[in-house]
């Protein structure tokens, strides 16, 4: 029951496919044939006919050419899809023919429309040949062999263009030569000619082969593009004169040389003629830029002109750098890529008076004058320009914008830019500039633009592997205030867009009240001497007087005891660490231990270090005091310290007390 349905569905599908797919059918009709008798020396005179085959038939299609003549001859030949040939023997000269093309395939056939002509009218004339030209004016001449000797009816067409143009310019109805009016000077032109021999309906010959002719020179007109590389300081005496070579089509001829005119402020005018034919001349031209480096000291005006065999341009003035003009501040943006430089700026709030144009220049930083340098003039209405170039990676370029006033120029803005930022080098000359107690000034050398592989965004300094300071890229020092006394380590790294460079480290120590300690030690020595003197005096008095004073009641003695205690502690005790109450200072110690640095005053201490500190302190308390560390006397802990060391003092003075002091009961 089910099986008859399947072929039914298949049938429907096939039917659908059949109606949807393109139907192969008879070919579309070709165009009417166009026929001529080509010019050949052999005078074969077969008729060649050409046509358009129409839509691509996709299936094999044959084409045939059919003709009837007025004499009643009917014939046909097989052709290709686009052409067919009527042999000379199948037609008569000077007879009228009707010709059509028939296309046929397995589904049917189609006919073109009919073309009718007289076989005497379809002879193609021979191709003309351009023989020579004259330079001034530029005129080309050709020869043509028409059948009828002395035919005065030949009419020709000429087409021409310059070598850098694609399209041809065509001129019709030319007789025997062609004069090119107002050609571009010193330019190579290409010409082709074709001709018809008899009357306006006659067939045109093929185009002649291309004939080239160069137009003659004329005096150059356009002024040179003159500018100068004045280095970083824009000082006139540092300026190197530069100009752009003119392309020959603009120079209207072969450039023979340049004339530079230097007007000195004392009135002298110096004219330097530099011929380009002299090798090793005064001016050097490379990569379409010429440079000449006369001394411009004391020069008030410079201009340059170019000349060829026909004349010179009008002198182009160099806009000398000047700084005595008031110019507005503009925002200035530079975007440097490997192959392009995009410079843009804001319109000045008010138009700059008398300004002619802008100049955008760039200079590869660190190169000698005129090298890695280029400029472009920009219309005063514009606010951006894109310069093509080949900019080196990791290299600084100084891009500047100038306003030009005929013969003066004025710097408006400049910026350093990199096409690609690299990692910065190690910071050099990193050193302690100044230490005063707990304040330290660190300094380093700015990374020079020639060494820096990218724009330095900031310097990163790390104190004791913990506290990070970011210093802006244009600063080269850092004040560290309120450091704890002791050993410190700081490292510095420069940062660019590409990241942080290698680090440079310094170690230094701070010693609170160092100078004061010296005085204190001296004071203590003096005090001790005084004490001895007093004691001697007292002992003499004791021997002479019955009444014996009790030295333990003497405030002076107590103070001296304390001081002595302190100074001893200062020499012997380990480092103490509650700096907010520090009064007494550190005694110099040549053998620093990095881990022995105190904490508290600087917030930048790691917990780890605190741990170290504590264990060190503990260890030191256990250790002998003469290990070599310094000691800060803690006034808050005076009593405790005093108490602790009481026995020491007592030991020292036990002999004295035993001898001279009555024991308190
Ligand atoms: C030639 O003459 C025949 C008969 O009159 C006609 O059918 C045919 O279309 C003609 N062919 C041409 C190319 O004129
Ligand atoms: C004519 O046929 C040739 C190959 O036989 C083909 O290359 C050419 O494209 C065809 N021309 C046209 C206009 O269809
Ligand atoms: C960049 O060039 C300008 C113009 O010559 C100059 O004034 C400026 O100092 C240069 N900048 C640097 C950083 O060299
Ligand atoms: C003017 O100055 C130039 C260069 O400074 C010097 O060569 C020239 O001799 C001076 N001329 C006079 C007349 O002083
Ligand atoms: C610069 O141009 C101004 C205005 O045209 C002119 O007065 C001045 O003499 C020129 N200076 C020089 C050195 O050519
Ligand atoms: C050039 O830079 C300006 C401003 O930064 C921007 O508006 C413009 O699109 C840039 N042009 C190109 C071609 O990148
Ligand atoms: C430049 O700007 C001025 C004033 O806005 C205008 O008159 C002039 O036509 C502009 N020139 C060009 C070339 O755009
Ligand atoms: C510059 O950098 C680009 C992108 O990283 C790279 O393709 C190119 O090779 C580099 N050129 C040189 C000369 O190193
Ligand atoms: C250290 O710097 C602080 C803050 O600037 C200042 O108050 C203090 O007097 C300085 N100390 C010394 C010894 O220069
Ligand atoms: C600095 O600290 C980091 C972790 O905070 C540690 O890995 C590194 O070893 C320390 N460097 C020094 C020199 O102490
Ligand atoms: C310092 O600069 C780095 C990178 O530029 C940044 O990640 C960090 O937060 C900055 N630190 C401070 C304290 O500004
Ligand atoms: C700084 O001190 C550390 C140890 O405290 C030492 O490893 C480093 O080499 C020292 N650096 C300099 C530059 O003296």
TrEMBL record:
Residues 593-665 are annotated as: Disordered. It is found in: Membrane. Gene3D superfamilies: Immunoglobulins. Keywords: Glycoprotein, Membrane, Receptor, Repeat, Signal, Transmembrane, Transmembrane helix. Residues 1-22 form the signal peptide. PROSITE patterns: FN3 (PS50853). The keyword Transmembrane applies. Residues 617-627 have a biased composition (Acidic residues). One of its GO terms (cellular component) is plasma membrane. Residues 607-616, 650-665 have a biased composition (Basic and acidic residues). The chain crosses the membrane at residues 519-540. InterPro entries: FN3_dom (IPR003961), FN3_sf (IPR036116), Ig-like_fold (IPR013783), Type1_Cytokine_Rcpt_Type2 (IPR052672). Residues 124-218, 321-426 form the Fibronectin type-III domain. CDD domains: FN3 (cd00063). It is a single-pass type I membrane protein. Belongs to the type I cytokine receptor family. Type 2 subfamily. This is Interleukin 12 receptor, beta 2a, like. It comes from Hucho hucho (huchen).
């Amino acid at each position: 029951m089910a099986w008859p349905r399947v072929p039914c569905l298949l049938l429907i599908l096939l039917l659908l496919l059949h109606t949807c797919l393109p139907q192969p059918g008879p070919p579309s009709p070709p165009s009417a044939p166009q026929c001529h008798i080509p010019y050949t020396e052999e005078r074969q005179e077969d008729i060649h006919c050409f046509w358009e085959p129409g839509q691509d038939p996709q299936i094999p299609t044959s084409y045939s050419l059919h003709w009837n003549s007025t004499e009643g001859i009917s014939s046909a030949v097989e052709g290709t899809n686009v052409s067919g040939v009527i042999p000379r023997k199948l037609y008569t000269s000077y007879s009228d023919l009707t010709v059509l093309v028939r296309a046929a395939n397995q589904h049917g056939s189609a006919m073109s429309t009919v073309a009718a002509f007289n076989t005497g009218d379809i002879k193609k004339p021979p191709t003309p040949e351009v023989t020579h030209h004259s330079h001034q004016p530029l005129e080309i001449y050709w020869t043509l062999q028409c059948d009828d000797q002395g035919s005065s009816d030949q009419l020709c067409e000429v087409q021409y263009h310059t070598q850098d143009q694609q399209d041809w310019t065509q001129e019709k109805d030319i007789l025997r030569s062609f004069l090119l009016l107002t050609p571009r000077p010193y330019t190579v032109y290409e010409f082709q000619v074709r001709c018809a021999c008899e009357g306006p309906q006659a067939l045109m010959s093929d185009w002649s082969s291309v004939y080239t002719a160069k137009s003659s020179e004329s005096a150059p007109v356009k002024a040179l593009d003159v500018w100068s590389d004045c280095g970083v300081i824009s000082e006139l005496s540092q300026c190197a004169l530069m100009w752009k070579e003119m392309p020959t089509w603009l120079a209207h001829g072969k450039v023979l040389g340049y004339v530079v005119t230097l007007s000195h402020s004392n009135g002298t005018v110096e004219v330097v003629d530099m011929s380009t034919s002299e090798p090793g001349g005064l001016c050097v031209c490379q990569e379409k830029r010429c440079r000449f480096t006369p001394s411009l000291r004391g020069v008030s005006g410079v201009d340059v002109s170019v000349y060829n065999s026909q004349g010179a341009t009008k002198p182009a003035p160099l806009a000398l750098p000047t700084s005595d003009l008031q110019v507005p501040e503009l925002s200035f943006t530079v975007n440097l890529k490997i192959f392009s430089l995009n410079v843009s700026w804001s319109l000045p709030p008010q138009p700059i008076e008398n300004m002619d144009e802008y100049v955008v220049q760039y200079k590869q930083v660190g190169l000698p004058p005129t090298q890695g340098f280029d400029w472009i003039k920009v219309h005063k209405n514009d606010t951006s320009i894109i310069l093509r170039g080949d900019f080196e990676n990791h290299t600084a370029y100084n891009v500047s914008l100038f306003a030009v006033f005929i013969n003066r120029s004025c710097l408006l803005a400049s910026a350093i830019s990199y096409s690609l930022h690299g990692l910065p080098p190690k910071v050099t000359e990193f050193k302690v500039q100044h230490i005063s107690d707990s304040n330290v000034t660190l300094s380093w050398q700015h990374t020079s633009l020639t060494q820096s592989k990218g724009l330095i965004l900031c310097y990163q300094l790390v104190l004791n592997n913990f506290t990070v300071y970011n210093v802006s890229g244009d600063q080269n020092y850092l004040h560290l205030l309120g450091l704890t006394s002791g050993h410190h380590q700081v490292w510095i790294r420069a940062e660019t867009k590409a990241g942080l460079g290698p680090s440079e480290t310094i170690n230094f120590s701070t010693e609170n009240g160092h100078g004061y300690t010296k005085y204190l030690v001296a004071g203590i020595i003096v005090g001790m001497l005084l004490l001895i003197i007093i004691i001697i005096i007292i002992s003499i008095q004791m021997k002479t007087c019955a009444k014996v004073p009790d030295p333990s009641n003497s405030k002076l003695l107590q103070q001296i005891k304390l001081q002595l205690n302190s100074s001893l502690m200062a020499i012997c005790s380990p480092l103490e660490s509650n700096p907010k109450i520090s009064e007494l200072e550190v005694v110099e110690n040549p053998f620093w231990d990095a881990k022995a640095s105190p904490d508290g005053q600087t917030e930048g201490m790691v917990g780890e270090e605190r741990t170290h500190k504590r264990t060190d302190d503990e260890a030191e308390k256990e250790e002998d005091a003469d290990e070599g560390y310094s000691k800060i006397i803690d006034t808050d802990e005076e009593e405790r310290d005093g108490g602790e060391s009481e026995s020491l003092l007592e030991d020292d003075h036990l002999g004295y007390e035993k001898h001279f002091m009555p024991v308190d009961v």
